[in-house]
């Protein structure tokens, strides 16, 4: 009976409290189902993100508020844009329909949550950053339910390690094993012979030497205890050969627990030492976020 209850919970994860702040969660699900104004806004937000992805890939021209028509791209034929994105990337970008209860943008090709689109962008960025690296290995700290892992695999980054909280590892294992039934996926405690490894946070310190070409964090370091983030950054320096990629906000809002201000990742990178900034620019897909790439120094 417990197995059935767990299966139901996982199959409907986006309606459950465990996915709060990760993909959707119980509170967000309740708001979406009861508030049509918010639901419509969220649909437009997702559509706008998809348009932004098409612009950054260069498959549609970028609008200019100073010249020509502006604000019309959102009325484009979305199915044609999806086709152009797929031709450019050389993969099917339709996400697996696994995280039950998630509110998604409906298209003829499939349904997209805004985190599907963001994850596709990040996977593409990793591929671009590592395009001259043979058989690249990526580590992601705080990986949501594994969407960036999914798209990275499709784009050719086969060696991927997730570091996250143990209860979130359960979601990631469920999502990725369902997505890749033929892929070798290793969970904590199993022999690490898979292309994709899903590990709890405390296992990061047990990583032997520099085994990752790039370590990634998106949308979580600002909201984690400062000391924990600095410790993570020092472990990133110890375990990563070349790059650290951060895509995070810098609002310095009050954290959900305690009365502390959220972190600014660049400040903590300076405190951890051993990193050199390669670039910093506004994140294409979401206002208020910044994308930063750091070179790991010896």
Q: Any chance you could write out the topology, listing elements then pairs?
A:
Elements: H1 2-11, H2 26-34, H3 36-57, H4 78-89, E1 105-106, E2 111-112, H5 114-129, E3 137-141, H6 147-154, E4 159-164, H7 166-179, E5 185-187, E6 196-200, E7 212-218, H8 226-239, E8 240-249, H9 265-272, E9 275-282, E10 289-296
Parallel strand pairs: 3-4, 3-7, 4-6, 5-6, 7-8
Antiparallel strand pairs: 1-2, 8-10, 9-10
Helix pairs in contact: 2-3, 3-4, 3-5, 5-6, 8-9
Mean pLDDT: 95
Strand portion: 15-25%
How many β-strand runs? 10
Q: Trace the largest sheet across and list its strands.
A: 5-6-4-3-7-8-10-9
Q: Residue share in helices?
A: 25-40%
Coarse morphology: globular
First-last Cα distance:
53 Å
Structural class: alpha/beta
* Order of helix and strand elements from N to C terminus: HHHHEEHEHEHEEEHEHEE
| Rg measurement, Å | 19 Å
Task: Please describe the biggest sheet, giving its number of strands, its sense, and whether it closes into a barrel.
Answer: 8 strands, mixed
Q: Ranges with pLDDT <50 over ≥5 residues?
A: none
| Count of helical regions | 9
Notes on the protein architecture:
- The longest helix is centred in the N-terminal third of the chain and has 22 residues, at 36-57.
- The protein has 298 residues and is of the alpha/beta class.
- Helix 6 (147-154) links the parallel strand 3 and strand 4.
- The strands form two sheets. Strands 5-6-4-3-7-8-10-9 form an eight-stranded mixed beta sheet, sandwiched between helices. Strands 1-2 form a two-stranded antiparallel ribbon.
- It contains nine helices and ten strands.
- It has helices at residues 2-11, 26-34, 36-57, 78-89, 114-129, 147-154, 166-179, 226-239, 265-272, and strands at residues 105-106, 111-112, 137-141, 159-164, 185-187, 196-200, 212-218, 240-249, 275-282, 289-296.
């Amino acid at each position: 009976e417990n197995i059935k209850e767990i299966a139901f919970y996982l199959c409907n994860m986006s309606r459950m409290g465990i996915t709060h702040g990760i993909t959707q969660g119980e509170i967000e699900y309740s708001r979406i189902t009861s508030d049509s104004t918010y639901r419509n806004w969220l649909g437009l937000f997702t559509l706008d993100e998809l348009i932004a992805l098409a612009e950054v890939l260069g498959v549609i021209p970028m609008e200019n508020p100073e010249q020509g028509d502006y604000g019309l791209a959102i009325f484009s034929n979305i199915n044609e844009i999806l086709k152009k994105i797929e031709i450019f990337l050389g993969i099917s970008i339709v996400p697996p329909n696994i995280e039950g209860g998630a509110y998604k943008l409906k298209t003829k090709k499939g349904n997209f949550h805004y985190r599907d689109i963001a994850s596709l962008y990040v996977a593409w960025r990793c591929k671009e950053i590592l395009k001259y690296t043979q058989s690249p290995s990526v580590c992601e700290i705080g990986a949501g339910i594994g969407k960036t892992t999914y798209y990275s695999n499709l784009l050719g980054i086969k060696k991927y390690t997730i570091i996250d909280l143990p209860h979130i590892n359960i979601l990631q294992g469920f999502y990725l094993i369902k997505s890749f039934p033929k892929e070798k996926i290793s969970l904590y405690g199993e022999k690490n012979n898979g292309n994709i490894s899903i590990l709890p946070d405390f296992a990061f310190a047990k990583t032997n030497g520099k085994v990752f070409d790039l370590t990634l964090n998106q949308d979580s370091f600002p909201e984690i205890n400062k000391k924990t983030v600095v410790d993570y950054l020092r472990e990133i320096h110890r375990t990563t050969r070349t790059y650290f990629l951060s895509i995070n906000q810098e609002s310095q809002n009050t954290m959900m627990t305690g009365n502390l201000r959220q972190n600014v990742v660049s400040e903590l990178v300076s405190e951890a030492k051993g990193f050199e900034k390669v670039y910093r620019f506004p994140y294409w897909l979401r206002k208020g976020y910044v994308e930063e790439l750091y070179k790991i120094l010896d």
